[in-house]
Amino acid sequence: MRSLCGLAVAVLRSHAIPSRARCGFSTYFEPGRAIDHWIVEYRNRGRWISADFQIDSVQASVLQLDFDALDQPPGKFLRAGQAWQACRRGQLDPACCGILEEGGYWFIAQNLMRDLAALNKMEVLPWDVWGMMPKPDDPMPSELLDQFDQIAELTADVDARLGELRRRYEDDDRVRVPIRVQNAVRQRVEPVFPG
User: Fold this and answer.
1) What is the Cα–Cα distance from 59 to 43, expressed in whole angstroms?
2) Averaged over 19-46, what is the pLDDT?
3) Confidence (pLDDT) at 1
4) For a FRET experiment, which of 55, 100, 112, 129 has its CA 20 to 30 Å from that of 164?
């Protein structure tokens, strides 16, 4: 995530504009799929605006977007918690949430953890893995599903439950980003912020 999205958040914050990175799934890249993606939310005139700073006018034209990528209406980007809840209610197929051939509850759960971290100003890389993040073939027992249900509720209603969200992050070693994480691309443990 330490890319254009991270840069946008840093620039907005440097201008005292409340902003936050959000991890989830874009519904506008591929029909019938919710593709792994990050956006920025920033506060303006009393509301949070969802902006995808990675989409320029050429991409918007190719994708045939019928909305402003810099002021997205609800439903165009599914925050990880929204995707998780929709899947758990049977409204969305978890297999359509991911990237390339990867997807499913495990993928959504990983993005849910990254979103929780980002809401606590710990913006990580999209391939950083830690704590109770499941791997593709890991079983998802009901106790683990319940934990992700709780996190999804917190991240879905951020403003009303910010204190509770922050406490959950700070008090739970399974969700808090440690100083070293598994880089799933390089298949090795690395520091979160290399020196």
Assistant:
1) 25
2) 96
3) 43
4) 129
What DSSP string describes the chain? -TTHHHHHHHHHHHTT--EEEEEEEESSSSTT-EEEEEEEEEEETTEEEEE-TT--HHHHHHHT-SS-TTSPPTTSEEEHHHHHHHHHTTSS-GGGEEETTEESHHHHHHHHHHHHHHHTT----TTEE-TTPPPTT----HHHHHHHHHHHHHHHTTTTTHHHHHHHHHH-TTTS--SEEEETTTTEEEESS--
> What's the pTM value of the predicted model, to 2 decimals?
0.95
Domain count, the chain: 1
Q: Is the dihedral angle over the CA atoms 72, 110, 86, 120 positive or is it negative?
A: negative
What's the one-letter identity of residue 43?
R
d(CA 131, CA 33): 27
- DSSP code string of 61-86: HHHT-SS-TTSPPTTSEEEHHHHHHH
Nearest-CA neighbor of 23 among 133, 113, 152, 97? 113
Residue 173 CA to residue 32 CA, distance in Å, equals 36
Distance CA 35, CA 99 (A): 5
Domain that holds residue 151: 4-191
